[in-house]
Automatic annotation (TrEMBL):
GO terms for molecular function: DNA binding. NCBIfam families: guided_TnpB, IS200/IS605 family accessory protein TnpB-like domain. Residues 303-359 form the Cas12f1-like TNB domain. It comes from Thermococcus indicus. Keywords: DNA recombination, DNA-binding, Transposition. Residues 187-286 form the Probable transposase IS891/IS1136/IS1341 domain. In the C-terminal section; belongs to the transposase 35 family. This is IS200/IS605 family element transposase accessory protein TnpB.
Length: 408
């Protein structure tokens, strides 16, 4: 929400303090040599792999170091002491993010520099009464006050707990949380595919979440971006501005879709543990064709799981054999005309259903090696697997808050 506070001095001093914290941690960082794997494309979707010896950074994290750092930063600090604790926490967060990008080759061995002005406000610096928050700047001298009762989000979070705030020059970010009682009774298996999420629910059956619109968004903007790149040499500056605009539009539309997807997933399957495969997209890119790799790169499984984890419990299982193991006898399935068939027991089904069901079984802690038919689905006569077609297909409603069901 917007504010009209005079906080330029606080923002400036916090920025300087944050940079000092990063400088101190950086100067005490230990660098160790380690072997790292790399690859580069050699054409036809293939890659050449090689190893190098790289320097890996290790940041000092002992309590003694943090105590000394805090004492250094407190000298001549004109505001409340708790801002120093917030600064140290933020400095480590920035450096850990830099380290991940450095190890992936996206950053050089160069110290991060704080360019944006913001202040991270801990809950110990706030006093909350209903919808009113009082923030301590200087104890017994200067306070900031805000009331969010007239904001658009108030009705949705009025009973929630207020978390940390982030103050910027013209606005403030508020965070809220609430405790949710969760019985952990039901687990569901989620098979992540290029154009869908296939969900197996022990009570609702097989539900296919259609992601074709998400891929359509990415594909549409990719075509525009590819076309602009092909003519970039003719007008470099103008085309660069257009590329920036369309990259931002692509990112924002995908983010909007994903946010609505996870909200609707959490509402469609309440009181549920979501079980996903622990997928490695990097390995899947090694053997695919160029077209397949392009489609795979548009998949957003990691982002879906990350965003969903903020709302529901998530578990991961080993993906090996989930789409190729017969759920009745444990034999290896064979693919025939888009379906899978077991040469041992004659079981036939859609491969995506089998994947979702086997992920569900593995999430229960059972091995995929077959068993008695009656042990598979105890609520169906004879325990037979009859759901070879999805019970329903659901699509993300971009203007609503729940899925649109399309019976199949």
């Amino acid at each position: 929400m917007n504010h009209n506070w005079s906080v330029e001095d606080l923002l400036t001093e916090y920025q300087k303090l944050l940079q000092r914290a990063i400088d101190e941690i950086w100067e005490n960082t230990t660098w160790k040599e380690k072997k790292a794997k790399h690859r580069y494309p050699i054409g036809n979707g293939k890659y050449k792999y090689y190893e190098t010896t790289r320097l890996f950074p290790y940041f000092p994290k002992s309590n003694e170091f943090k105590r000394e750092l805090r004492n250094k930063l407190l000298k001549d600090w004109p505001f409340a002491k708790h801002y120093v604790d917030s600064t140290i926490k933020t400095a480590y967060s920035i450096l850990e993010s830099w380290r991940q990008n450095y190890l992936k080759g996206r950053r050089k061995r160069k110290k991060p520099v704080v360019k944006r002005k913001f202040v991270r406000v801990k809950t110990t610096l706030m006093k909350v009464e209903g919808s009113k928050i009082r923030i301590t700047v200087k104890p017994r001298k200067k306070y900031l006050e805000l009331d969010y009762s007239n904001e658009w989000f108030y009705e949705r979070i009025k009973d929630w707990k207020v978390g940390e705030l982030i103050i910027r020059e013209k606005d403030v970010y508020l965070t809220f949380s609430k405790e949710v009682e969760f019985s952990r009774r039901i687990k569901i298996g989620v098979d992540s595919n290029l154009m869908s999420l296939d969900v197996y629910h022990p009570e609702k059956g097989w539900i296919k979440v259609d992601l074709s619109e998400l891929h359509g968004i990415a594909e549409t903007y990719d075509r525009i971006i590819d076309r602009l790149k092909s003519i970039q040499k003719k007008a470099p500056k103008r085309i660069s501005r257009l590329l920036q605009k369309y990259y931002a539009r692509r990112r924002n539309r995908i983010e909007d879709y994903l946010n609505k997807l996870v909200v609707q997933l959490s509402r469609e399957f309440p009181d549920t543990v979501f079980v996903f495969e622990d997928l490695n997209k990097f390995k899947m890119l090694e053997n695919g064709s160029r077209d397949f790799n392009r489609k795979l790169s548009r998949s957003t499984w990691g982002k879906i799981v990350q965003k969903l984890s903020y709302r529901v419990p998530i578990e991961f299982v080993n993906p090996a054999g989930t789409s190729s193991t017969c759920p009745k006898c444990g034999s290896k399935l064979e693919s025939r005309n888009g379906q899978v068939e077991c040469p041992n027991c004659g079981f036939k089904s859609d491969g995506q259903f089998v994947g979702a069901f086997n992920i569900f079984v593995r999430g229960l802690g059972a091995a995929l090696r077959g068993g008695e038919a009656r042990d598979l689905l105890p609520y169906e006569p004879g325990g037979e697997l009859r759901l070879v077609n999805p019970k329903s297909v659901v699509r993300v409603d971009l203007s609503g808050r729940t899925f649109t069901h399309v019976p199949s």
